Every structure is written in structure tokens, then in C-alpha cells.
Amino acid sequence: MTTREECLARDARDPLAPLRDEFTLAEGEIYLDGNSLGPVSREVRRRVDQVIDEEWARGLVRSWNTAGWMDAPLRLGDRLAPLVGARAGEVLVADTLTFLLAKIIGGALELRPRRRVLLTDAANFHSDLYIAAGMARLVARGVEVRTIDRDALAAHLDEDVALVMLTHVDFRTGEMLDMAGITRAVHDAGALMLWDLAHSTGAVPVDLTGADVDFAAGCGYKYLNGGPGAPAFMYVAPRWQGVLANPLPGWLGHARPFDFEATYESAPGMRAYVTSSPSVLALGALEGALAVFERTSMAEVRTKSLALTDLFIELVDQALPGVVEVVTPRAHDRRASQVALRHPNGYGVVQALIERGVIGDFRAPDICRFGFTPLYLRYVDVYDAVAILVDVMASDAHRAPRFAVRRAVT
Ligand SMILES: Cc1ncc(COP(=O)(O)O)c(C=O)c1O
């Protein structure tokens, strides 16, 4: 069994260790929820201050022209692109994830007009299911959203399928799907592929170009650390730019927004998917957050992420056999950067851990989620978190009556 001393020794040789200093982390707390909301970094504060003090306070309305505000959604897209295996001009940062999914779904269904099925995973994130159903209702010819068991996808890929939408990393279990293989099968069936990268971006290497993906979208507030409600991003393969229409057009996606024309004419490239004024402060925060990724590589992040999750699983297996169940796949190619433990009183377990300074979260009905973010987590944090979990279980702290009522956000 790995000892605490061995963990400290691994931290001492960790090439990512210096990046921890970039983040504000509370003394005595172990933050295992970067898969839900990443912490604030120094560069986020610096960039937001700069936007407020220089660009907004001093520049005022002139900053739309002089501070690059109009181009921020595209500039940030170019900066984020390498994290998902995309190139400059293929990514836009805007809106929030559900809205960007709506734009892609609405546009993509029109690219396969004779096909009337949108296939998705019955276990997909509920917002993805809601917006898929909503957009399908808006398509005049009537599109059916068919929710399936994703492991049986091949059996459902027929000539009626227009679009397949899947989430690359399952938000409950942390299982990672085979992006390249699934995309190939979807294309072989003549359908289009949309990936939700909410739990992938900044967590695992993603190669949208290599996997020949049509469309993708992800969020900025999880592993990217862009702040609560940070803008999201969308990817459109070059072959679909200028072809995929924005079903929610607005003035800033127009080719000439300041001509104030009554008829819409789409701007070229990714700008076509802009609808409204960019959220400049929020984009500033996300821009600052991306800086830390430029001091490492996703390959380096992945190596440490797997080492952290391997360690957590090893320690849990040894200390808590039969008490909690590791539901995240053990195979590296099917595991992302979170580990999910199943326990019938998972909510109580997570709350008791939070009271002891180990921050994870709970997803109904029985999943305790722990995100492992290599940019700021140490091996010794993993060791200490498991020691506290063992203590919680041994002392029955999770059964305390105050944990019987769930709060709004779990
Ligand atoms: C997999 C997945 N898809 C979509 C969303 C929705 O994101 P947003 O609130 O930005 O619309 C989330 C949010 O956590 C998510 O985890």
C-alpha cells in the first residue's frame, strides 16, 4: 500500500507542482470538485482587474474597438483550440453550453433533411436531453429524439439517423467513450457527430481533428477554471463552416453588424455562431484561466491525472472493500479525471467529507464524485482525502441527521 511518505516524495518530483501556486486554495482543504467548478487563479484576477480598470473604467465604450472586445470570442477560441485538438479558426467561446448545443443541434438537423432521428444516450446530462427535445420540436418536419443505451449504439445507427449527440465523459461515472471509433461508426451510417466535452476539456487530451468530429461543445467553468457560469465553447469542423447555419441568429453574427440591415447575412467562419454581445468580464476571467494551460501540455496533465486517480482507487480498494464501490472504469482508456464511488447514503458521505475539508459532490441517486485536477492537486492530498473518508465511514459521520435533507445544489 502506498504510504504518505511515498506520496510526499512523488510531490517533490512532480513537474506540475509549481502550478499549484497559481491557484487560491483554502489552507487545510482538499478540493476534489474541479470537475464542477474550478478554483480561481492569479492570472484570472489579473486579467479581470485589467478588463475592469483599464478597458472598462478608462476606455469605456471605445474599448469595443480598442481592447479587442469584439474579437474576444474568436481570440479565446483560438487559444482554447489546442486543448481539444482543434486549429485556429475552428472554436468560438460564447454563451453557455446548453445554448451552444442548441445552435449546433438546430443547424445540424438541417444538414440531413431526409433523416428524422437524433440519437442520444439515455444517461446523458439532462440539459442535453432537454435541449435536444426542444430543438427537435422546432424543426418543422418533426424530428424524434431517440434515447438509447450508448453501449448499443451500433444497433441503432440506421439511415434515419441525422445526428448522434454523446457526452464524451459520463458526468456520473467518469467513464470516457471512444471518440474516434464512435465518430467513425456514425459517419459510416451517414450521420453527423456532436460531442459534449463538458467533462473532457482541460481534463483529458481530446483530438477533434484526428477523430474527424463534426461538432463539439464544452464548458469553461469546470476543468478550465473560468469561473462560475463561465462562457462555453463550440467547435465546427472546417468542412461545415459556412454550411452549418446558426438557428439563433443575432446581430453580432451578421457579416456587417453596424450596417443595421433588416435582413440577416451570416458572417464567415466561426463568427457566424455569435448571437449577442460578448460577456466581456466573463471572457476576461476565462482568458486568464487559460494561461496556466500554456505552461504545460495535456499529455503531462493526463499522465498526472491517471497517477492521481490510480492512487485514489488503490487506496479506496485497500481501505474500504465492500464499503463503497468504485464505479469509474479502471482501464486507463475508459477513465477520465474523476472517480465516482457508489454508496447508498452518498449524499451523507459527501456532506460529512465537506465538513472535514474534503470537497467533492453528490449526484443522485448514490454517486459520490471526486475530481482530480493535476494543476493544483498533490499526491498527498489524495492520501489525506482517503484517510478522512475512512474515518468518516468508520465513525458513521455520514449518518448524522443534519444530512438527511438535501440542499439545492448537491
Ligand atoms: C455534460 C454536461 N452537459 C451540459 C451541461 C450544461 O452546461 P450549462 O449550464 O453551461 O448549459 C453540463 C453542466 O454541468 C454538463 O455537465
Characterization of the model:
With 410 residues, this protein is an alpha/beta fold. It folds into two domains: 4-16 and 297-403, Alpha-Beta Complex (Aspartate Aminotransferase, domain 1); 45-294, Aspartate Aminotransferase, domain 2 (3-Layer(aba) Sandwich). Helix content is 34%, strand content 13%. The protein contains twelve helices and 13 strands. The protein has helices spanning 4-12, 42-58, 63-66, 72-80, 97-109, 126-138, 153-156, 179-188, 280-290, 298-319, 346-355, 379-395, and strands at 30-31, 91-94, 117-121, 144-148, 161-167, 192-196, 215-218, 232-236, 325-326, 338-342, 358-359, 361-363, 367-371. It has a seven-stranded mixed beta sheet with strand order 2-8-7-6-5-3-4, with helices on both faces. It has a four-stranded antiparallel beta sheet with strand order 9-10-13-12, with helices on one face. Helix 6 (126-138) links the parallel strand 3 (117-121) and strand 4 (144-148). It is globular and about 65 Å long. The relative contact order is 0.17. The model has no long low-confidence stretch (mean pLDDT 96). The structure holds pyridoxal-5'-phosphate (PLP). Pyridoxal-5'-phosphate is lined by residues 96-98, 125, 127-128, 167, 171, 196, 198-199, 219, 232.
